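To illustrate the input format used throughout this study, we show a single complete record. The first block contains the structure-token representation of the backbone; no residue identities are included at this stage. The design step must infer an amino acid for every position from geometry alone.
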């Protein structure tokens, strides 16, 4: 044991007790010290305690004003070196005293006498017998239990926010800036904050809220402990996600407490909720809740939400609209139609209405009519730059810091976005979509990352955020869509990590896979042809489907899913539900996550989370967040280089794409991969250099198929990608991918000087092409 650490901890504990309680708690300790002094004066009275106390004199008495402190400081150090064993002996004595408490624990002794006289019982009785020091120890215990602990509880109670503050709302605007300080959006809630009295809110609006948020509101005391236990049980054993918080608790949490998710904060929430129930009537609490809860964005309170979503006052809301709004507060970003999740929004509205039927708040006939009604939402006309990016930032911040702090806390958020680049990328996406309308796609998206640190430089979620025609509010960058062949590098990277090489030969031939419980599966290439024996390099560069499926079958789909999940792919779970077609885009993914995969290749296999924020300052100017670029090496440097080398090999992909395609950036080595789903509903292009990663998409938000000409991957997304990459690389020197020390180029003279790149230890004996046409004849001179 480190005795110095023990001593420091003991001293710290004593100082804390002195500060919070005072001298009364130290009385037992003083008795112990005085008793140790008696031992020192008359050690013969205590034969079992053979302590030798050092003779020490305090040097502090010799200290004089303006004197030289160096010699004194040396003496002080010597003094404490001698003091340590003295203090430790006192501590040892205290431990011995703790073991002897029999006279004060008569009840315990009686119980022991009644019990079976085993060895343990006899040992305990022997230890407790004849204790003469128990009063001192009892003094310590009494002081801690009845003085220190109540005082600490009192201090904790004094620090709780007063429930009277619930009626005092203080709103400060939060500003979101680009990396150069240009204003993207200002969250200024006061201009949209319009409280209304409870008697002006229709009964069906109140009932919808109570049905989904707190059905026992008028019967509990501010906390529904049964609901909390039920939610905890469901979350722990059934994998659900229930809150269990009452309306009173939610009001307290959102108005008075920090968003931290700790037991301490939850305890404060419960206590203040109980206090609030004593300070206000139920109707007053409900009114404050409906006026202060967030319904998403700048919609604080039911009146503001009614105006924002439907352009009407709260008293004019019908049942369908009331049910929709009541379902928003638990997760505004998830259930808002403006964030693209229309299905989740409808499911939430249905859930609210079904609860109302169950509780008798609405009839089945009225609910059926409400469910059949089409909601007409008001257009969103707020001043905002890079709107999809701003919403993305807000969702992240609200998840981390809570809605109230983000919207009312007066924060200054400096993001990674480059507004000048953002405007250029937006123009490119919009013009390309308009100019290629004959390809039957109406929307496009693009994301630009700094490959080195994952910072978001440009974020275009659609061609027009405010367009109702294309559902422009939907953010394609965070939407889950099938990636087509753009996911193949994930499979091939895993294969290269598990014994494959760029020279591994794969037969591109007709094949049918049969699995129990599934229909036979026969993959086909985009061109409808078979290419015979091809190398892994050729298969990936030309995006042949059959070799990719064969490799996926060899690896196993579960390993591919596990690899993707490790690399940040959301909703990828190893549950055995995916087949080998996952390597062709059979599992949906976000553009954001897939772009970050390519950025990981650009960083030599170092995975970093996408970083949209540089710094956050609170209302007083103190920095509460600063971006730190931390990464993990999830893909080996050698494999990352091989992927980059293959994807930037224009000669290797010429068979499928030609030598002068839009995948070529003259004068620059750029790795690039396209992808198109079989249904022609999604078309992608991802490419990167060591400095920039660009991901682009075109399609239709309603999943209408595009023109079949997009099957080559060279139309649609790739021209957008090409133009963005040209803007990024204009005037910049070529930046080739740097090979790590364990990668080398092998040239095989036996195969007409064929060459290939390998990680050391993985190269085969010969590199002859699959058909052996280039292999030298052994009889040639």
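Output of the design step:
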């Amino acid at each position: 044991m480190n005795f110095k650490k023990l001593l420091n901890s003991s001293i710290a504990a004593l100082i804390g007790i002195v500060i919070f309680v005072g001298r009364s708690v130290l009385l037992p300790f003083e008795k112990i010290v005085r008793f140790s002094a008696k031992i020192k004066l008359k050690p013969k009275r205590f034969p079992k305690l053979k302590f030798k106390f050092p003779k020490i004199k305090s040097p502090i008495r010799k200290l004089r004003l303006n004197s030289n402190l160096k010699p004194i400081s040396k003496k002080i150090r010597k003094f404490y070196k001698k003091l340590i064993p003295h203090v430790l002996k006192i501590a040892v004595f205290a431990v011995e005293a703790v073991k002897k408490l029999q006279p004060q624990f008569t009840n315990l002794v009686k119980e022991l006498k009644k019990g079976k006289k085993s060895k343990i019982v006899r040992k305990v009785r022997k230890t407790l017998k004849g204790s003469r020091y128990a009063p001192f120890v009892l003094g310590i215990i009494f002081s801690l239990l009845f003085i220190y602990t109540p005082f600490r509880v009192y201090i904790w109670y004094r620090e709780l926010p007063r429930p009277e503050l619930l009626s005092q709302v203080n709103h400060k605007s939060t500003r979101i800036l680009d990396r150069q300080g240009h204003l993207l959006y200002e969250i200024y809630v006061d201009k949209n904050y319009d409280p209304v009295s409870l008697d002006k809110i229709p009964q069906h609006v109140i009932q919808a809220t109570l049905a989904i948020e707190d059905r026992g509101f008028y019967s509990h005391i501010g906390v529904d402990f049964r609901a909390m236990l039920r939610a905890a049980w469901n979350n722990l054993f059934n994998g659900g996600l229930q809150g269990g918080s009452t309306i009173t608790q939610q009001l307290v949490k959102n108005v008075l407490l920090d968003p931290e998710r700790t037991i301490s904060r939850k305890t404060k929430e419960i206590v203040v909720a109980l206090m609030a129930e004593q300070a206000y009537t139920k109707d007053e609490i409900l009114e404050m809740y409906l006026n202060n809860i967030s319904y998403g964005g700048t919609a604080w309170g039911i009146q503001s939400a009614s105006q924002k979503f439907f352009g009407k006052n709260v008293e004019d809301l019908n049942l369908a609209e009331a049910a929709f709004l009541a379902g928003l507060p638990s997760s505004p970003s998830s259930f808002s139609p403006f964030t693209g999740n229309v299905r989740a929004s409808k499911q939430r509205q249905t859930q609210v209405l079904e609860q109302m039927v169950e509780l008798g708040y609405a009839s089945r006939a009225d609910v059926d009519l409400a469910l059949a009604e089409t909601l007409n939402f008001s257009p969103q006309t707020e001043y905002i730059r890079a709107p999809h990016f701003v919403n993305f930032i807000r969702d992240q911040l609200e998840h981390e810091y809570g809605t109230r702090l983000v919207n009312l806390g007066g924060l200054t958020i400096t993001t990674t976005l480059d507004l000048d680049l953002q405007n250029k990328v937006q123009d490119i996406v919009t013009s390309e979509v308009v100019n290629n309308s004959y390809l039957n796609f109406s929307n496009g998206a693009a994301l630009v990352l700094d490959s080195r640190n994952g910072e978001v430089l440009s974020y275009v979620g659609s061609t027009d955020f405010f367009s109702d025609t294309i559902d422009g509010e939907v953010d394609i960058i965070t939407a889950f869509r099938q990636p087509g062949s753009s996911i193949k590098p994930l499979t091939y990277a895993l294969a290269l990590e598990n014994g494959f090489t760029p020279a591994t030969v794969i037969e591109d031939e007709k094949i049918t896979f049969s699995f129990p419980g599934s229909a036979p599966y026969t993959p086909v290439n985009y061109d409808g042809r078979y290419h015979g024996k091809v190398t892994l390099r050729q298969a990936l560069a030309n995006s042949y489907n059959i070799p990719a499926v064969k490799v996926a079958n060899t690896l196993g789909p579960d390993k591919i899913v596990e690899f993707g999940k490790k690399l940040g792919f959301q909703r990828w779970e190893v549950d055995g539900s995916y087949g080998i077609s996952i390597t062709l885009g059979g599992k949906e993914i976000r553009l954001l996550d897939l772009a970050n995969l390519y950025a990981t290749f650009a960083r030599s296999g170092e995975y970093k989370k996408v970083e949209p924020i540089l710094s956050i300052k609170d209302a007083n100017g103190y920095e509460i967040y600063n971006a730190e670029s931390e990464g993990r090496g999830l893909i080996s440097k050698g494999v990352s280089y091989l992927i980059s080398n293959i994807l930037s090999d224009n000669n290797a992909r010429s068979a499928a794409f030609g030598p002068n395609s839009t995948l070529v950036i003259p004068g620059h080595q750029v790795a690039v991969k396209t992808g198109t789903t079989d249904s022609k509903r999604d078309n992608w292009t991802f490419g990167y250099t060591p400095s920039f990663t660009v991901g682009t998409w075109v399609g239709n938000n309603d999943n209408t198929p595009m023109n079949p000409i997009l099957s080559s991957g060279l139309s649609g997304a790739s021209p957008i990608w090409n133009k963005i990459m040209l803007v990024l690389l204009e005037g910049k020197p070529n930046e080739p991918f740097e090979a790590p020390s364990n990668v080398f180029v092998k040239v095989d003279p036996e195969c007409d000087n064929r060459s290939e790149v390998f990680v050391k230890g993985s190269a085969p004996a010969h590199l002859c092409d699959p058909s052996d046409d280039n292999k030298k004849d052994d009889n040639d001179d």
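Structural context for interpreting the output: DSSP finds 27 helices and 18 strands in the chain. The radius of gyration is 35 Å.
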